[in-house]
Fold this sequence. Notes:
Layout: E1 6-11, E2 17-19, H1 22-30, E3 35-40, E4 43-48, H2 49-59, H3 67-77, E5 81-83, E6 90-92, H4 95-101, E7 106-112, E8 115-119, H5 121-138
Antiparallel strand pairs: 1-7, 2-6, 3-4, 3-5, 4-8, 7-8
Amino acid sequence: MFQVRGQFDVKMDAKGRVALPARLRERIVAASEGLVLTHYEGCIQGFTASRWRKMERRFLGVSPFDRASRAFLLAFVAGAAEVTLDASGRINIPPALRRQAGLDKQCVVLSYLGTLEIWNPDRLLVAQGAAASTLQETGGLDGFLAYDPDDDGADL
């Protein structure tokens, strides 16, 4: 898993290639893994291949005959695509994922908690505004302990 925090403005070329920020690219290369990209809530989410395999093992436990489970599998899992970094440190986002996320030339890459997201800048602003409103309406995470004081484990 990689752990890079930040928001980065990037450009996508006409072939759907996005150059990842250097810090993020270095961590992915160091992990010797490709990425799995999928569409979720208006953006492209990216996970290391090993993290995706762990998630897939959990996905195997959902019933394909349950309507909510089937909807999840169809919306999140079925459209996933494996990508690798090319020699220039770019990933090629498949056309179907680009269309779903409304990606064009200007993109924003978010990296947090060992995952990355690629957003259309306008959609990101709308999503961040909606998230801020939800936090204000619900009182946020008032009862959430951001870290476990007894956790001596390794950092992400």
